[in-house]
Design goal:
Structural class: alpha/beta
CATH architecture of the largest domain: 3-Layer(bba) Sandwich
CATH topology of the largest domain: FAD/NAD(P)-binding domain
Largest sheet: 5 strands, parallel
CATH class of the largest domain: Alpha Beta
Number of helices: 10
Shape: globular
Helix content: 25-40%
Strand order of the largest sheet: 3-2-1-7-18
Bound molecules: flavin-adenine dinucleotide
């Protein structure tokens, strides 16, 4: 019987999973279909660069899939029926049946975190959101203010990139706690030096209560006017998996075991931001660094399942927090498998070069997803 593997989402996880599964199953009669709402691969880790006005490489999925045998369906997933093993789409062919499903639909900005963010804030989590922000920033007259909310990696990178690319803007970084929480003291000191050099105003311990048309209302009752608000305070996952009855956590990420197999539906695998994969000490942080390996391992697992072999633990681990501060500066903090910080920190140009090499290497890996270890 021909097995049909359907992968939902062509981000780092889904594209990796589809290509890896197809490669593993080459020469068998298994089919792999990849469903994605756009026909282009979105290099999400560069969306702050795009919003700032820089050009990104054009990466059509058909080019990245060339020679793999993976069939691409460009459509939005609107529902999953695990009973019938059917995925519903908003465009032709409107439905696609599966024997094995990989759920890798990624995440979006958590704009429901405070009132007004969904209506008034710009976001960076999707290509469409970043494109809207890019147009808005380009249209702003000089000396207009941009408030980036979120002291995590995305907020830090965005604030630095906007100010370096468009020095005429007044950029503020606003966060509820310390900026770069979780980084060691040396890394945090470097962040502050970089923001001082770039002339980005950092407002730590400033929780936002609401986003309005003219800026931020703070929890302490104060107001922070801004011409543009960018909401970069966390990601959230779409409700499709939960609506389909798949076991999910409170964030909507599908619950998977050590092999990335759904805890409720054994014919379903999860990878990337949309799956709660275990690393030593907890659940993987939503990141490209874990999403791509999860995708590759999910592709391996699917191929093993289809070939009647035992599944193996995916062995997902964290490696670092690799933060760009514009194009010429950065902070790289190396981590243990559980994401806790190790001592060494790379800063300045060395970190910027390292991050650029990792980012380029990720796209190279999307083109050549291995396997590198025979039988891995
Ligand atoms: C500005 C920015 C900078 C970042 N920097 C870093 C970094 O430096 N390092 C790092 O590790 N991580 C970084 N991240 C996080 C990283 O981008 C994500 O964790 C990663 O993209 C997750 O990969 P994924 O494959 O799970 O999801 P995605 O890359 O989001 O891919 C999901 C895919 O599914 C598609 N899709 C979604 N819903 C549907 C639907 N209903 N129907 C059809 N298709 C759908 C999307 O179009 C997309 O192609 C950054 C994120 C942002 C926004």
């Amino acid at each position: 019987m021909t097995m049909h593997i359907v992968v939902l989402g062509a981000g780092y996880a889904g594209l990796g999973a589809a290509k890896r599964a197809a490669r593993r199953l080459r020469g068998t009669d298994a089919r792999v279909t990849l469903v994605n709402m756009s026909e282009r691969f979105v290099e999400r880790v560069r969306l702050h660069q795009f919003a700032a006005g820089q050009e990104l490489a054009d990466l059509p999925l058909r080019g990245l899939l060339g020679g793999t045998g993976v069939e691409l369906v460009v459509a939005g997933v609107t529902g999953i029926d695990p009973g019938e093993r059917v995925v519903r789409l908003d465009a032709a062919p409107h439905e696609v049946g599966y024997d094995v499903l990989v759920y890798a639909l990624g995440s979006g900005a958590d704009v429901d975190a405070v009132p007004g963010a969904a209506e008034h804030a710009f976001t960076l989590a999707t290509a469409e959101g970043a494109a809207r922000l890019r147009s808005r920033l380009a249209a702003l007259p000089a000396a207009r203010s941009v408030a980036v909310v979120g002291g995590g990696l995305t907020g830090i990178e965005a604030a630095a990139e906007f100010k370096e690319t468009q020095p005429r803007l007044e950029v503020q970084l606003v966060c509820a706690g310390p900026v770069g929480d979780g980084l060691v003291a040396r890394a945090r000191r470097h962040l502050h030096r970089a923001f001082h050099r770039l002339d980005v105003t950092v407002r730590e311990h400033t929780p936002v209560a609401e986003v309005g048309p003219d800026g931020l209302l703070l929890e302490d009752g104060g107001e922070l006017p801004a011409d543009v608000v960018v909401w970069a305070a966390g990601f959230r996952v779409a409700g499709l998996a939960a609506a389909a009855g798949l076991a999910t956590d409170e964030q909507g990420r599908i619950l998977v075991d050590a092999t990335l197999r759904s805890r409720s539906h054994p014919e379903v695998f999860g990878a990337g931001d949309a799956a709660a994969a275990h690393v030593a000490g907890g659940v993987a942080r939503m990141s490209c660094q874990t999403s791509l390996p999860m995708g590759l391992r999910a592709g391996d697992a699917v191929a093993r399942l289809v070939s009647g072999r035992d599944l193996r633990p995916a062995g997902i681990r964290h490696l670092w927090q690799n933060i760009s501060l514009g194009r010429r500066d950065g902070v790289t903090q190396f981590s243990r498998a559980d994401d806790s910080p190790l001592g060494p920190v790379l800063t300045g140009r060395a970190s910027a070069r390292y991050k650029e090499a990792v980012t380029r290497g990720t796209v190279w890996r999307m083109r050549h997803p291995g396997p590198c270890r025979p039988g891995a």
